[in-house]
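quick one, 166 residues, struct below
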Amino acid sequence: MEITNILYALATIIVGVVFVQLISKYVNRLKDSKSFKHVISKSGYNTAILWYISYFIKLGLYIVISLVAISFLGFAQQTLSLVAIIMTLSIIGVLVYSLRDLIPSAFAGAYLMRGKLIKKGDVIKIKEFKGKVQEISLLTTTIKDDKGGIIIIPNKIITEKIMRKK
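---
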């Protein structure tokens, strides 16, 4: 292994990390802007899903940087393929595990947003919570109880539990 290859690998890692950090700062600034928040709130998406998307894009960029750096070190193609497969399976595993509650709520939210089960203005009771539906988004439904309190319920719970609608 030549010293120049090691230097190329280190340079790739350093430049790559700086690049990912700059992209991450730009995305965070974009997510925090008023216009972006307005667009997201109008579309019915929850900002939590944006965090997951930006996190996995960042993770993917780090993996690409790692693979490029490893290739400079002269490892065989089979080794690189094996590392890529292991990293991909790891990412998929982490993604599925972290989204295990988010995915059912998103599907339930899409179903609820069609407006056939409940809609804005309906009075519903789920478990011990009762109130008027204020908003239905992709992941949650917001209801306002008789005392003016705001209750946010994951859509998964609404579609799984017995609900009373008035």
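The mean pLDDT is 81.
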